[in-house]
TrEMBL record:
<dbReference type="GO" id="GO:0008270">
    <property type="term" value="F:zinc ion binding"/>
</dbReference>
<keyword id="KW-0378">Hydrolase</keyword>
<dbReference type="Pfam" id="PF14437">
    <property type="entry name" value="MafB19-deam"/>
</dbReference>
<keyword id="KW-0819">tRNA processing</keyword>
<dbReference type="InterPro" id="IPR028883">
    <property type="entry name" value="tRNA_aden_deaminase"/>
</dbReference>
<feature type="domain" description="CMP/dCMP-type deaminase">
    <location>
        <begin position="5"/>
        <end position="114"/>
    </location>
</feature>
<keyword id="KW-0479">Metal-binding</keyword>
<comment type="function">
    <text>Catalyzes the deamination of adenosine to inosine at the wobble position 34 of tRNA(Arg2).</text>
</comment>
<dbReference type="GO" id="GO:0002100">
    <property type="term" value="P:tRNA wobble adenosine to inosine editing"/>
</dbReference>
<dbReference type="InterPro" id="IPR002125">
    <property type="entry name" value="CMP_dCMP_dom"/>
</dbReference>
<feature type="binding site">
    <location>
        <position position="86"/>
    </location>
    <ligand>
        <name>Zn(2+)</name>
    </ligand>
</feature>
<feature type="binding site">
    <location>
        <position position="89"/>
    </location>
    <ligand>
        <name>Zn(2+)</name>
    </ligand>
</feature>
<dbReference type="InterPro" id="IPR016192">
    <property type="entry name" value="APOBEC/CMP_deaminase_Zn-bd"/>
</dbReference>
<keyword id="KW-0862">Zinc</keyword>
<protein>
    <recommendedName>
        <fullName>tRNA-specific adenosine deaminase</fullName>
        <ecNumber>3.5.4.33</ecNumber>
    </recommendedName>
</protein>
<dbReference type="InterPro" id="IPR058535">
    <property type="entry name" value="MafB19-deam"/>
</dbReference>
<feature type="active site" description="Proton donor">
    <location>
        <position position="58"/>
    </location>
</feature>
Length: 166
């Protein structure tokens, strides 16, 4: 029970990171990496503002965590992310030897922690992660749903105003 409460608390931190992305017009995905009950890496999506395809929340948090402990091996860490990791992020998680990954909402389009495939628990790799899914699922999913609903609304409004000019 205590682990569940802790997972929810750390996921709330990841949600705060996702909200930073949303404030910038980025897809609201956030991540924190925890080592010995301390956040050592934080990240949120920054693809649009940096125009870098690798500027995902997990990639930014992994870099920060590695810098913090001075090693590429994050062997005693847990990664919390609001959306299931994509193939690139799952690969970076495996490469950095993170033993445990906790995510909020599944990603039906790119999820590689069990939805489309499971790179994190792939037995052919030299490292596998324990995966815990659906922590604060509704909160994480609602962040994304609300963001994309608003984006579609704005796009429709823009399209209608363009039609009015014609």
């Amino acid at each position: 029970m205590e682990e569940k409460v802790q997972d929810q608390s750390w996921m709330e931190q990841a949600i705060k990171e996702a909200e930073k992305a949303e404030d910038l017009g980025e897809v609201p995905i956030g991540c924190v990496i925890v080592y010995r009950d301390q956040v050592i890496g934080r990240g949120y999506n920054q693809r649009e503002i940096t125009q870098q395809s690798s500027a995902h929340a997990e990639m930014i948090a992994i870099k920060e965590a590695c810098d913090d402990i001075g090693s590429w091996r994050l062997e005693e860490c847990t990664l919390y992310v609001t959306l299931e990791p994509c193939p690139m992020c799952a690969g970076a998680i495996v490469q950095s030897r993170i033993p445990r990954v906790v995510y909020g909402a599944p990603d039906p389009k790119a999820g590689c922690a069990g939805t489309l495939m499971n790179l994190l628990e792939e037995h052919r790799f030299n490292h596998r992660c324990y995966v815990q899914a659906d922590v604060l699922h509704d909160e994480c999913r609602n962040l994304l749903t609300t963001f994309f609903r608003q984006l579609r609304k704005e796009k429709k409004k823009k399209s209608q105003s363009t039609d009015d000019v014609k």
